[in-house]
Design brief:
The chain is α/β, with parallel strands linked by helices. It folds into 2 domains: about 5-25 and about 290-475, LarA, C-terminal domain (2-enoyl-CoA Hydratase, Chain A, domain 1), CATH 3.90.226.30; about 35-285, Rossmann fold. The chain has helices spanning about 35-45, 85-95, 120-135, 165-170, 190-195, 200, 205-215, 225-245, 270-285, 315-325, 360-370, 375-385, 390-395, 405-410, 415-420, 430-435, 445-455, and strands at about 5-10, 10-20, 25, 65-70, 105-110, 140, 150-155, 160-165, 175-180, 250-255, 265-270, 285-290, 295-300, 335-345, 420-425, 440, 460-465, 470-475. The strands form 5 sheets. It has a 6-stranded parallel β-sheet, with helices on both faces. Strands 6-5-4-9-10-11 form a 6-stranded mixed β-sheet, with helices on both faces. The mean pLDDT is about 95.
Amino acid sequence: MDKKVSMFCGNNFVDVEFPENTRILSAPPHVDPLSDPKKAVLKAIRKPLGTKPLKEHVKAGSKVLIAFADLAVPVPPMPPPDNRETAIGAIIEELYSAGVKNKDITLVCANGIHRMWKRSELRIILGDKIMSEFNHAQIIGHDAEDKENIVHLGFTENGYDVEINKRVIDYDLTIYVNLNWVAFNGGWKSTIIGLGTYKTIRHIHNHEMYIAEAPASCMEPDKNFLHDRIREMGHHLKEHLKGMGKEIFQVETTIDSQIPPKMSGVVAGDVDLVHEKTLEFLNQHKILDVKGQTDVLVFGLPDFMPYSMGTIINPILIARMGLGYLFSNYKNMPLVKKDGILILSNPLHDQVDPIHHPSYLTLWREGFERTRDAAELYDLFADEYAHRPEFVHKYRYGFGFHGAHPVQAYTTTVYPKMYLSKVFAAGCTDNAVAEKLEWEPFPNVEGAIEGAKKEMGKDISITFVQLPPFFTPRVEV
């Protein structure tokens, strides 16, 4: 008997009849949410790991920078209060009690080279009280192109630029408040990427990196070359701050597997020690042990992902989600076998938002006419788009993603396309979009499975991963 499953296909759900032998994976059960999140935050900042309590870092007259992760995480978004609202609210109260004045606190959304977020969107993260308590000049977005407020701190031992928001150096204390839902986020990535610039981020997000790091995935911080570089940059920053008598006070929160999610944990203190505890938590509660790889791997792709929050999806983001995120979300080895087939369910609409994704539109309309090769696209356009004046202007003032962002996002498809034999686009309504992505279109998942059987034989193994909630398969032979 076939297995009937409801799955994403863009903005809709479709019922799919999978063969009887299909393996269906879903998130493991999770711990209960915190009964009193604010109390947990206060406990964490008063008894931090590897450093003194928050209040002992500041005094009357101290200038404090509170950086926080942007609205790209989590997916789906949290209902109010967001983890960051709860944590920042408790932190502000603690700062006040230590004598810090309101006027000496600046909150910066650590959006890196993501787009700036409108105040109405920042309100989703921070809530009404914090938004009304601080003026426009005190709640800002990180501007990676604001040369007056960027500082270059030299090079790491392996020659990587460390360029950061100057406030991290100028203020007496930087507190970073994160929301960790996957092992890819958090740790030094928070500051180095969230408050960094293209000059720094180019060392991490490029096609050579994504080939060099494979087959270790970005969900394996202990094995992955990308995370090694981030830690090297972070420790360079840490030594620079140490010489000034300063440090980053890290606050990492986690969420449970409910939909919508709630806060499930919080740790504060030294960046490395805090992130170690966060990873322990994620490894315990967000990992599913899976026996054996599969010939065919199936995902349903919704029309939303981290870089489409507050706007519409586009084909480059669909590729980033299907190949760069979902194929690459594993421990030990890919869930699908070498030369296997990946089936992605999405209508693949030929659409790009010119306001929020201006350089995406140019890359999709013009760059893809030049080449379909992600590595060549990066070499041709990354630096050019990063410095093109209209893209810089739209990033700084028009809520557009940074010019280099689409090229970097698409480089995450390099290794999956080398590894897989084919990618099938199930439910595709525009074959021209599939052709530009070098995917094969099918009207539905059932048809794509039949196509896979013609390629690989009728006795193929099939695995469907049910998301959300998000989890990472740990694959054993």
